[in-house]
Amino acid sequence: MAKSGYNVSFLLLLSMFLILLTFTNMVEGYNNLQPRDCKPRCTYRCSATSHKKPCMFFCQKCCATCLCVPRGVYGHKQTCPCYNNWKTQEGKPKCP
Fold first, then answer.
1. CB crowding 3-26: b at 16 or more within 10 Å, else e
2. Domain that holds residue 72
3. I need a surface site. Which of 28, 33, 88, 94 has the fewest CB within 10 A?
4. Is residue 48 included in any domain, yes or no?
5. Cα(80)–Cα(66) distance, rounded to whole angstroms?
6. pLDDT in tens, the chain (96 residues)
């Protein structure tokens, strides 16, 4: 009986860890990407715009530098500070 209780406790702890890991990834967006991850993340990020070529160009440039792409197709830039704070010479956001 004690061994069974140990297994249940271990599984509960493992489940809580996996839930926390999943929640952290959802909150932080796509942080800590590898450069190879940029194109698929940017393809999704730019999927809702009618200006796909410039969106993809700047998203991939930002991703390569910041190794982060905010979640979703719009907004949520606060989850990637580097991506959010990179501005053009005119002071406008560089990253889509």
1. eeeeeeeeeeeeeeeeeeeeeeee
2. 35-85
3. 88
4. yes
5. 8
6. 455 666 777 777 777 766 655 555 444 445 678 889 999 999 999 999 999 999 999 999 999 999 999 999 999 998 899 989 999 999 999 999
Q: Is residue 20 part of a domain?
A: no
The pair of three-digit structure tokens given for residue 8, joined into one six-digit string: 């249940």
Residues β-bridged to residue 87: 93
Sign of CA pseudo-dihedral 78, 91, 63, 58: positive
User: Helix, strand or coil for residue 2?
Assistant: helix
Report d(CA 65, CA 77) in Å as an integer: 15
pTM of this prediction exceeds 0.85: no
3-state secondary structure of 87: strand
| 62: in domain | yes
Q: Count up the domains in the chain and report the number.
A: 1
